[in-house]
Amino acid sequence: MLWMMRRAGERNGNNRTYQFGQQHNHPLELSSNEMMQQKLDYLHRNPVAAGFVGEPEAYLYSSACDYAGTKGLLPVAVRRVNGYESVGNPSCTTRTSSPTMLKIATLSLFVLFGCIACGTQHESTTWQLDNLEQIGGHAVEIYGNPKVVETPYGKGIAFDGIEDQLIVDASPLKEYSEFTIEALMKPNDVFPENAAPRFFHIESSESVSRLLMEIRLNDQHQWYFDGFLKATTEDLALIDSTLIHPTEAWMHVAVSYQDSVFTTYVNHQPELSGAVRYDPIPVLNGKTSLGARMNFRSYFNGTIAKIRVTNAVLKPEDFMPL
Length: 322
Hints:
Blueprint: H1 33-45, E1 63-65, E2 92-94, H2 107-118, E3 124-128, E4 134-135, E5 138-143, E6 147-151, E7 154-160, E8 165-168, E9 179-187, E10 198-204, E11 210-217, E12 222-230, E13 235-246, E14 251-258, E15 261-266, E16 269-275, E17 286-290, E18 301-310
Antiparallel strand pairs: 1-2, 3-18, 4-5, 5-8, 6-7, 7-18, 8-17, 9-14, 9-18, 10-11, 10-17, 11-12, 12-13, 14-15, 15-16
């Protein structure tokens, strides 16, 4: 990947703010304002790193931008030739200058921006539920008689809805302020028994915050999703009995959270969204319950194959395949 930059047409002393991006109209996502400042500081110290050489048509914009409103994602910077245009944030003012000012750093900027890009990779934790001894390297408390079974997605754990439950001595959510949680699961057709099961529950004794993934069964061999998020002073349940899906079938379900927006998905399709202010669940004494609520009720009758937690809001096309 060749990373490049262009100097802004107007500069006021050392007050320079740059807009980053990739060629081919792909944004560079930033995980924090701190990372952004780190990049800016580098460019302030090294405005002409390595000495630029190259052709003017292959460049990226730089801009004067109020980063405070961009919430972790800078405007996309793209080439202005061959039909490309800048895709900007309304809070930013793009500045252009003569193409003759452009010079391209090849090797040095490849190293510089390549390393920056490496720092923006998402962190994911995947739990394949293929045994009862440990999950994700963490100790497990076993209740009832859950069983390891074969599934289309590798081994999974089947819960019979009669006090079957696993409590994992860890929270894969860590203390993320934004996240996506996914599960591959198959609910059995057991209405009216186990009609309101909670199959995934994260909580810590250090906080009242908690997150649950739940379903509701009806008498038509169907179920609908319920995502629940509770913080210190607020909580939100996303549930709609008209958004129905068949029982006895493998499904992908997910919830995500970013900037006070909580969203549910089924089979890679967004279903419901709502506003709630979330306080991250502490890692200290964090636990995960599979197959029931943490307090030993609302049991799930079905199978769970895999759980994945990512510290970003993923696009549905980046979800685990079904």
